[in-house]
Amino acid sequence: xxxxxxxxxxxxxxxxxxxxxxxxxxxxxxxxxxxxxxxxxxxxxxxxxxxxxxxxxxxxxxxxxxxxxxxxxxxxxxxxxxxxxxxxxxxxxxxxxxxxxxxxxxxxxxxxxxxxxxxxxxxxxxxxxxxxxxxxxxxxxxxxxxxxxxxxx
Length: 153
Known about the structure:
Structural class: alpha+beta
Number of strands: 7
Distance between the termini: 35 Å
Number of domains: 1
Mean pLDDT: 91
Number of helices: 4
Low-confidence stretches: none
Shape: globular
Radius of gyration: 15 Å
Strand order of the largest sheet: 2-6-5-4
């Protein structure tokens, strides 16, 4: 499975440090997760929805990541998630990821995107025994059409 991650060049390690420090939709601070998307376009939308086009961080890189097919993955459908999971980042949604990391049955968890529920984001547990087999295939600067990043038409 190929997934995509956008980050600054100094944060390319798949160690979950940012999520550990600040938490996110699927984890509370203190739990390490790496947030990725099944498609590069979804990864871009995920950044844009949180920053807006005017505040998009400079120097973003795109990481193409390979999760080997024989690594155990789990998936959650929207119907398996807490009520209002897509509208709010709450302790309810964070507990989903926190529990998944604690149980450590799999290295990757596929979840619907709150932005485009028909598409998937994939969480990586960097502390799972198989996480070392997950590899960055390529890394390159993210180049967006200026109309997205500067509001031009």
